[in-house]
Amino acid sequence: MKSIIRLFLSISLLFSASAIAEKLVIKPVADRVWAIVGPLTNRSPENLGNNATFGVVETDAGVVLIDSGGSYKGAKKIHDTIRSVSDQPIKYVINSGGQDHRWFGNDYFSRLGATIISSQNAREDHEQRLVDQIGRLTSLIGDESFAGTREKYADELFDDKKILQLGGVRFELVHAGQAHTPGDSFIWLADRGVMFSGDIVYVERMLGVGDQSNSKTWVEVFEAMASYQPKVVVPGHGNPVPLATAQQDTYRYLTTLREKVGAFLDDGGDASEISKVDMSEFSYLFNYDSLNGRNALKVFTELEWE
């Protein structure tokens, strides 16, 4: 009987730990600035598609939210988390890129009166990949978790740069080129030294070089972002970090991958042997086993065309 009880308690603790790991955690970054950190795991029914990091800035005239979540219900979870630190209304939502968890919560916040902003290229990416993103997301989080989610594209668009002023806070929105997605932008708060990078930066978790990505321009976009010399980077995935950590987990990974795959290609390597490219120095990153080979193959294809 005791062994059955111990087994039951072990299972209960396992599920409790799993549930905790899927929750959003809000972390202070600077004065009236927070990061909402989601899990490093994939999208799931438990996290409602919110497997990313989001940004919150409170001003005297309301809140600016960076990225709206992976679903309507996911957006509500983000809003509930914001309410734990601010009772100000959400005035603006900035979509930092094209992935579902950057914009699928737009409709929720739009209904509350928020104005949605994105780069023109992000908006085009949202439109082009909408059907594919819905299919992939529903397969991961399920129809029940996805219920209520509707596409809502940005109200205001910009090409390369936009300045947003609200409640005494100046936001500089910059789209410097294609990174993880074609429309990725970073958001700079000069007076706080805080950079919201979106998916230009991954820390703790291995980034994904997908069909919508370009590793060459991603490196260039990172360099443009880093030139601002932020004190703190709020990444697209992972916890807020100093710039040096962002450089290690994203920039150095990308440049090393391109260098090693390039050498492999120059030596006559075949795509079928891409596993010979040794990137084990980055094995500390979450998802290394599942993404490392895929990333190498995608960069191999890119370099062939370059």
Number of helices: 8
Strand order, largest beta sheet: 1-2-3-4-5-6-7
How many individual β-strands? 12
Strand content: 15-25%
Which radius of gyration do the C-alpha atoms yield?
Answer: 20 Å
Describe this structure in words.
With 306 residues, this protein is an alpha/beta fold. The chain has one domain: Ribonuclease Z/Hydroxyacylglutathione hydrolase-like (Metallo-beta-lactamase, Chain A, 4-Layer Sandwich). It contains 8 helices and 12 strands. The chain has a 7-stranded mixed sheet with strand order 1-2-3-4-5-6-7. It has a 5-stranded mixed sheet with strand order 8-9-10-11-12, covered by helices on one side. Helix 7 packs across helix 8 (288-305). The longest helix has 27 residues, at 120-146. The radius of gyration is 20 Å and the shape is globular.
